[in-house]
Design a protein that fits this description.
By secondary structure, this protein is an alpha/beta fold. 43% of the residues lie in helices and 19% in strands. The chain has one domain: 3-Layer(aba) Sandwich (Rossmann fold). The protein has helices at 17-27, 39-48, 62-75, 99-127, 148-168, 190-193, 205-216; strands at 5-9, 31-36, 52-56, 79-84, 130-137, 173-180, 183-184, 202-203, 226-229.
């Protein structure tokens, strides 16, 4: 039998959110196409996780992204699950930062999502089923000091996702936005952001991946759009 195809962008080192998402779907029989800029890391993950393939790609390069999706379709088949986990963030005063950084953030966080949808959702609509999942965070709902160049692009990403959910949901394609209100325990973030915090302070990438998998397979009578995830001790 043909195995369903899942695409995951922003797949970083083993133990990170993107890698755990790829791992979780691959464990349940999906063929998983992993996208990220670091070809060596993707190759290592593809050797570690069964049913996964490495597709080095900078999603900010929209032509490259479009070409990569076309290659995935040719080699693996049309994706039935797409997870946009790629992220670009720059922080600082809006008076001091390079305006081009806003454009670059928007390209990765929001425009790449649009292109992913345009290249994959039509096949889902034809099939009458599929899921588009987006990794977000609380910056999508508030603009804090020094977060203007990031939060504005995540807010746009959330609104674009909601518009697509309302358009494609009635046609059988489930779009869901995961608002993660937490520091995530990844090999990159924990040593820098909160090296002295206990394990309970963090959201586990494997738990995020498990929730994404669950939402992707929800019964149609109880679909979620905005899924908020936070550690039990988080103040909110």
């Amino acid at each position: 039998m043909h195995k369903p195809v899942c695409v995951v962008t922003g797949v970083g080192p083993e133990g990170g959110t993107g890698a755990e998402i790829a791992k979780r779907f691959s464990e349940d029989g999906y063929q998983v196409a992993m996208l990220a800029r670091n070809a060596d890391n993707l190759s290592a993950l593809a050797e570690t996780y069964e049913n996964t393939r490495a597709y080095p790609c900078d999603v900010a390069d929209l032509d490259a992204l479009t070409g990569t999706i076309a290659q995935i379709k040719k080699e693996m088949g049309a994706p039935s699950i797409v997870v946009h986990n790629a992220l670009r963030s720059t922080r600082g005063s809006v008076l001091e930062m390079d305006p081009e950084d806003l454009e670059r953030n928007f390209r990765v966080n929001t425009t790449a999502l649009l292109y992913l949808a345009r290249e994959t959702v039509p096949d889902m609509l034809t099939a009458g089923e599929g899921a588009l999942l987006i990794t977000g965070n609380t910056s999508a709902t508030r603009g804090k000091k020094n977060f203007g160049f990031f939060a504005s692009t995540k807010a746009a990403q959330r609104i674009l996702s909601e518009s697509m959910a309302r358009e494609f949901g009635p046609q059988g394609v489930h779009v869901a936005y995961f608002l993660i209100d937490a520091a995530i325990d990844t090999p990159r973030t924990r040593p820098i952001l909160a090296p002295d915090k206990p394990d309970d302070f963090f959201a586990k990438p494997s738990a995020i991946a498990e929730e994404m998998y669950r939402v992707a397979h929800q019964d149609r009578s109880t679909w979620s759009f905005l899924v908020e995830l936070r550690p039990f001790g988080e103040t909110w």
